Amino acid sequence: MDKLTLKAMAKINLGLDVVRRRPDGYHEVRMIMQTVGLYDRLTFEKTKDDTLRLESSMKRLPTDGNNLIIRAASLLKEEFGIREGLSIRLDKRIPVAAGMAGGSTDAAAALTAVNRMFDLGLTEEQLKERAVKIGADVPYCLQGGTALSEGIGEILTALPPAPACHVVVAKPPIHVSTKWVYQNLHLEQVTEHPDIDGMTESIRQGDYAGVVRRLSNVLESVTVPRYPVIAQIRDFLRENGADGALMSGSGPTVFALFDDRQRARQALDALQKTGLAAQTFLTALTERTCVEQD
């Protein structure tokens, strides 16, 4: 295989709780991860020289070893002594620094591509073992679908598909540092934690109302006071027919769930007129893997 094009799917967090801060500085989490139908497109092509080259449609993204795509491809290339190179083209669609695992899912695509194109024969579990070295969300991005994520994000339990619904995604014109959010999370001051067990049970029962009722993200307690536009978007979507709305990950992206596509479209159109969001999308939950051949 000399050329391969993959879709790298975005994620949202239907629930996100932080359990504790470990002595090594990492935070242990309990999260409900969910793939949505928003994706980056990556094209990988073999080259004869021993180099990795990355070209991105978003010019401000790094294309060297600071990009997770290059780090992921390099990890397998070095481990297995691969002497050929890759020319990689990234068509960036997932919002950047947005709490949707855009960088992590691109890294998962790179791991998948190198594994397939060079016939390494690694299983998904073997890829996950390597993926956590790149980032805590990368193992999930290899798995996709609906999952309970624990530990630092690498302990994954697959769940049945969440109830089908339509999703409005809105990113305000700001960027949020995940590192800053976790540094400013003071767990001793958190009085209410997301009901992750209840969310899990609602998903298992196919209870859409139960899922909506339990949408919760403990990181909103940090990000929203610093960036009020997040709450403005979230509340606007709720007021315009969303069954529920929440910040994804460490933010600033907000997603809203609707059981009716027309109502979702109307809310999206209304939001676009406010100017609160720089990027907006109408998509849906999906159980497809985060990395899928185009």
Automatic annotation (TrEMBL):
Coiled coil regions, renumbered to chain: none
Occurrences of domain GHMP kinase N-terminal (ranges): 67-145
Binding site for ATP: P95, V96, A97, A98, G99, M100, A101, G102, G103, S104, T105
InterPro entries found in the cross-reference section: GHMP_kinase_C_dom, GHMP_kinase_C_sf, GHMP_kinase_N_dom, IspE, Ribosomal_Su5_D2-typ_SF, Ribsml_uS5_D2-typ_fold_subgr
GO BP: isopentenyl diphosphate biosynthetic process, methylerythritol 4-phosphate pathway; terpenoid biosynthetic process
Active site (UniProt): K11, D137
MF annotations from Gene Ontology: 4-(cytidine 5'-diphospho)-2-C-methyl-D-erythritol kinase activity; ATP binding
Domain GHMP kinase C-terminal: 200-275
Catalytic activity reported: 4-CDP-2-C-methyl-D-erythritol + ATP = 4-CDP-2-C-methyl-D-erythritol 2-phosphate + ADP + H(+)
Enzyme Commission number(s): 2.7.1.148
UniProt pathway annotation: Isoprenoid biosynthesis; isopentenyl diphosphate biosynthesis via DXP pathway; isopentenyl diphosphate from 1-deoxy-D-xylulose 5-phosphate: step 3/6
Keyword vocabulary terms for this entry: ATP-binding, Isoprene biosynthesis, Kinase, Nucleotide-binding, Transferase
UniProt cross-references to Pfam families, sorted A to Z: GHMP_kinases_C, GHMP_kinases_N
Function field: Catalyzes the phosphorylation of the position 2 hydroxy group of 4-diphosphocytidyl-2C-methyl-D-erythritol.
Membership in a protein family: Belongs to the GHMP kinase family. IspE subfamily.
Protein's name according to its UniProt entry: 4-diphosphocytidyl-2-C-methyl-D-erythritol kinase
Organism: Candidatus Eisenbergiella pullistercoris
Gene: ispE
